[in-house]
């Protein structure tokens, strides 16, 4: 009966086990210089420390600044090691019943989409290529692990947030905007009215939906320049599993565990600080600004253990509120260019990412 829809009636979802405060982990991924940066002779200002390194060293002029993160993935880290280092544990947590989110945050052109999606094609043997990113790898890994679960269902959704509008990337009805409502049954979550949620039975079916949604995003981008760098995309996998609770096996009682994983490719972080834009551009920049700024504030409030978390101040955080804070797991991958030409954006990304990690642990600055 694998892959069938499970009825949630009469099912008692066990509470996810209590987890310590390290619910938010922040990683940095720095690619090597691209052709343009090499051609322009733009100096390398960012260095990392190999596979297990946790520090990013930013050197410019006489200043050296060292930032520490939960993990730093340098140019030597391939797609598989990024998956193993960041996403694998999250999948474990999702299968235990946590709501989890992985964000890619960074300047346009630094590798957010490469990290989250990468190559979506399979080779002639039906296997993913080395260039496959987190989304395709999660799908294959998930179904591999579920093969040991007697009864489960998997559903996915894929939406885009542009100008604070929510667009369904899986809908046949192009251009239909979705509305968010508060969930009357659960004050921590929202209901997205009319969103397509598609049940999948194999990773290949999931991959086809990722391709479908990504292509829709691309088509919209060609119609409106810059759109992909200004929009956020959220691919969500929800798993229902019937498992026996180890503590209660004597009663043979079965439970349904529900886990959720959001894979979020954020708008380019340069939109957060864009100035001098006018009219429609200003409106767009301002709205993206709102979502990225609010996300930063929400994460900051969670790190600080604030009483008020400003989820409601942007669509993105409202949409993800059941997966941020409380019994959830969040991973942020901040992507960087190592070249001097991007220095200002790199500093802003490192500061944003560092604030998300801990406000107590400030970066070390050495003036030579
Ligand atoms: P973003 O989504 O941040 O705008 P992309 O993911 O589109 O950036 O990356 C820009 C280009 O750089 C793409 O051609 C991508 O394949 C390449 N790229 C990014 N990161 C890496 C990396 N770590 N290794 C190899 N190529 C990369």
Q: Based on the structure given, which CATH architecture is correct?
A: 3-Layer(aba) Sandwich
| Annotation field: number of helices | 9
Backbone CA Rg: 21 Å
Largest sheet: 11 strands, mixed
Low-confidence stretches: 1-21, 274-278
Bound molecule types:
adenosine-5'-diphosphate
Mind telling me the CATH superfamily name?
Answer: Kinesin motor domain
| CATH class designation | Alpha Beta
CATH fold description? Kinesin
> In angstroms, what separates the terminal alpha carbons?
66 Å
The proportion of strand residues reads: 25-35%
In total, how many beta strands?
15
Q: What does this protein structure show overall?
A:
It is a single chain. The chain has helices spanning 35-39, 79-95, 112-116, 134-146, 203-223, 227-230, 279-303, 315-319, 343-357; strands at 24-30, 46-47, 55-60, 63-68, 71-73, 99-106, 151-162, 165-168, 177-182, 190-193, 198-200, 232-244, 254-265, 328-336, 364-367. The N and C termini lie far apart (66 Å). The protein has one domain (24-367): Kinesin motor domain (Kinesin). It has 368 residues and is α+β, with helices and mostly antiparallel strands. Helix 2 (79-95) packs across helix 4, helix 4 (134-146) runs antiparallel to helix 5 (203-223) and helix 7 (279-303) packs parallel to helix 9 (343-357). A hairpin with a 7-residue loop joins strand 9 (177-182) and strand 10. Adenosine-5'-diphosphate (ADP) binds at residues 31, 34, 106, 108-114, 335. Adenosine-5'-diphosphate binds at residues 31, 34, 106, 108-114, 335.
């Amino acid at each position: 009966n694998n892959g069938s829809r499970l009825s949630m009636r009469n099912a008692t979802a066990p509470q996810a086990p209590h987890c310590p405060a390290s619910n938010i982990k922040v990683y940095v991924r720095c690619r090597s210089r691209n052709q343009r940066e090499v051609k322009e002779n733009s100096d390398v200002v960012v260095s990392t420390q190999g596979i297990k390194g946790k520090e990013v060293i930013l050197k410019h002029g006489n200043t050296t600044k060292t930032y520490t993160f939960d993990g730093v993935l340098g140019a030597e880290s391939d797609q598989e090691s990024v998956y193993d280092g960041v996403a694998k544990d999250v999948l474990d947590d999702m299968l235990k019943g946590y709501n989890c989110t992985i964000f890619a945050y960074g300047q346009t052109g630094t590798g957010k989409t490469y990290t989250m999606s990468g190559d979506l094609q399979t080779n002639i043997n039906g296997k993913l290529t080395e260039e496959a990113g987190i989304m395709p790898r999660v799908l294959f890994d998930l179904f591999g692990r579920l093969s040991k679960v007697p009864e489960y269902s998997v559903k996915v959704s894929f939406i885009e947030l542009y100008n604070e509008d929510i667009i369904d990337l899986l809908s046949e009805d192009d251009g239909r905007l979705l509305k968010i409502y508060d969930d009357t049954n659960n004050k921590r979550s929202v209901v997205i009215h009319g969103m397509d949620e598609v049940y999948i039975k194999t990773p290949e079916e999931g991959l086809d939906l990722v391709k479908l949604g990504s292509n829709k995003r691309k088509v919209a981008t060609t119609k409106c320049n810059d759109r992909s760098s200004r929009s956020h995309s959220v691919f969500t996998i929800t798993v229902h599993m019937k498992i026996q609770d180890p503590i209660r096996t004597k009663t043979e009682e079965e439970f349904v565990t529900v886990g959720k994983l959001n894979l979020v490719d954020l708008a380019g972080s340069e939109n957060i600080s864009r100035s001098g834009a006018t009219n429609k551009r200003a409106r767009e920049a301002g709205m993206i600004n709102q979502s990225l700024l609010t996300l930063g504030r929400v994460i900051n409030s969670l790190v600080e253990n604030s009483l008020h978390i400003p989820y409601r101040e942007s669509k993105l955080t409202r949409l993800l509120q059941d997966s941020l804070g409380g019994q959830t797991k969040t991973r942020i991958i901040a992507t960087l260019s190592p070249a001097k030409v991007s220095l200002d954006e790199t500093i802003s990304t490192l500061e944003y990412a560092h604030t998300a990690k801990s406000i107590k642990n400030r970066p070390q600055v050495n003036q030579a």
